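Lab notebook, bench 4. Still working through the backlog of constructs that have no structural model yet. Next entry is a single chain of 231 residues. Request: give me the structure tokens for it.
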Amino acid sequence: MSGKPADGKARIQTGKHEVSGVWVDPTGDRKAVLILAHGAALRRDHPSMTALADALAGTGMSVFLFNFPYTERGRRVPDPAPTLVRTWLDVWEWAGRDARTSGVPILAGGRSMGGRMATLAAAQHPEAFTPAGLVLFAYPLHPPGHPEKLRVAHLGAIRVPMLFLSGTRDSMVTSDVLEGEVKKLGKRGRLHWLEGADHGFHVLKRSGRTDEQARAEAVAALEAWMTERVV
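Model written out:
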């Protein structure tokens, strides 16, 4: 990609802050790009994020992982939503500009909060934030224990395809509600359930599956959706 740092690492200015990012590239030809944000309690270099990026790169996808400002400052409490959305817009402008030289679809998404902020950016700034699709790993439908506080009002304003990848044991999801909300999106929405997985995509040992298998299932579902809805 033109202008890409030789070591894959980057520093991006966003408002008064600067955030770090890194490219994780496939060994062969690139078939798509995914700009991927971390969840509220994670960082871009958390093992779950790097493992996901490596699994995606194994399918031919180039992944750009980045931090939000609060993680760069060593804080645990996320920045206000406007700051997180602003970060998404600035990262998208930087990484998206670089990725567009490859001529492949450019997706955006993230784990939990990172994915939700991508949906807010898409709903609030459709002219500036223009991914070919949104990939939402463990979308936080509501806070744990508060199913009445739904985070869905903005989803209908999003015009691009959305893939929801959620575990059946996720404490931040009420299954029938999420199914209903995705159904409202029509062809723009798709939901794939990861049987037995929790919010972090961990599965119980007695399920007979491993976390790696659950992650591989999510990646395979993303590949199938991208072929049908995006490419």
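Notes after review: The helical segments are 47-57, 69-72, 81-99, 113-124, 175-184, 211-230. The chain has one domain: 9-230. Flag for follow-up if needed.
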